[in-house]
Amino acid sequence: MTQLSMHSPVGDLTISEDDGAIVSLDWGWGAVQTETPLLLEAKRQLNLYFDGDLKRFNLPLRPYGTAFRKRVWDAMVRIPYGKTETYGEMAGKLDTAARAVGGACGSNPIPIIIPCHRVLASGGDLGGYSGDGGTETKVLLLRLEDALL
After folding, report:
1. Mean of the per-residue pLDDT values for the chain?
2. E strands, 19-125, where?
């Protein structure tokens, strides 16, 4: 697995690639840095996203997880930039429980690119965010996308 780190408005991020696909995005700076074409492209797209110039990532993704979690992550990728869904709305589409959707959001290995920040609790509550900074980071990402009312 190769990694490349970058500075961002939400802190240092490390992007990991394995066998030609992005497999994780973590907070912090990786110990070993490797510039592959895919990692450089991921960094470029993330910088464009943070600048407000990219609405949809176009990267090969291979998040490791159960079949159920992969279904939830696939559904998250389909939430448009600047829009949100509740855990309950997503659960209804996937014929599962809102709590199960929340669990999948919390275990998302590629946050931001797989936009778990766009999934909110019902009644206007933000819900949680497992990335560094917790809900403060979630709010920053939603404001970046003009998704908060």
Report:
1. 94
2. 21-27, 85-86, 119-120
The amino acid sitting at 5 is S
CATH 1.10.10.10 in the chain, residue ranges: 67-144
Sign of the alpha-carbon dihedral angle for 63, 66, 71, 73: negative
CB atoms within 10 A of CB 23: 17
Sort 22 into a burial class: Cβ within 10 Å, 0-12 / 13-18 / 19+: buried
Active site residues per annotation: 116
pLDDT value for 130: 81
Task: For residues 140 and 146, give the distance between their C-alpha atoms in angstroms, rounded to a whole number.
Answer: 10
Distances (CA, A) of 125 to 77, 82, 128: 21, 17, 9
* Top CATH class, 67-144: mainly alpha
Q: Which of the residues in the chain have pLDDT under 50?
A: none
pTM over 0.90: yes
